[in-house]
Design goal:
mainly alpha
Length: about 210
């Protein structure tokens, strides 16, 4: 891969990562409520899932998707249901106690956050289609070398993580403007609504 192709590949992945979708909506919702630092593990999970699809795309993901389409459908609905569940938990977080300090009780463990991010990306069929259709424009998959695979993996990881955390930081900065308990409750409900909408979008879009 030439330097020009590597740069174009990096920015294409970056733009893809900030394009509105279930992953971006989930990061927005989490960052608005918990801050960007709490989004790091979720972002890593999303990147790990994307890298898995990237590797599979290099070795015939289209064939796998065609022969195991039912598995991808199941994964998609599981991911959608999980997003709706998390959205509901956000909306009802302050139902019985309006104090902001108790918000920390709803925060996920690092492993749960990583798994959440991985599942969101893995259950999004648009990610599969993107890599299957996108990679051949930059790389001849019939002449793929180990060095090419390492390079695109590194470029993808940096581009994806940078884009996701940029979204998280921006959402967190916006949320800091809202400081009163009532405003925080409304923020939680808004974030939960975004999460539920992301789940619904994932469920109905093929």
């Amino acid at each position: 891969m030439s330097l020009e192709a590597a740069i174009a590949f990096f920015f294409a992945i970056f733009i893809f990562a900030i394009t509105p979708g279930p992953g971006v909506f989930a990061i927005l919702a989490k960052a608005m409520v918990e801050g960007p630092r709490r989004c790091i593990m979720m972002a890593l999970g999303m990147v790990a899932s994307d890298l898995l699809y990237l590797q599979l795309a290099c070795f015939g993901l289209a064939t796998i998707a065609e022969n195991w389409s039912e598995v991808f459908v199941i994964i998609r609905y599981v991911g959608a249901g999980y997003l709706v569940y998390l959205g509901y938990k956000m909306i009802t977080a302050f139902t019985h106690n309006q104090s902001i300090p108790n918000q920390k009780k709803t925060q996920q463990t690092p492993l749960a956050s990583f798994s959440h991010g991985f599942l969101i990306s893995a259950s999004n069929p648009k990610v599969i289609l993107f890599y299957v259709s996108f990679l051949p424009t930059f790389i001849d998959l019939t002449r793929l070398h180990g060095s090419d695979l390492i390079l695109i993996s590194v470029l993808s990881s940096i581009a994806l993580m940078s884009a996701i955390m940029l979204v998280a930081y921006g959402a967190s900065r916006l949320a800091k403007v809202i400081k009163t308990p009532i405003a925080q409750q409304r923020l939680n409900k808004t974030a939960g609504g975004i999460m539920i909408a992301a789940g619904a979008y994932l469920a109905i879009n093929k």
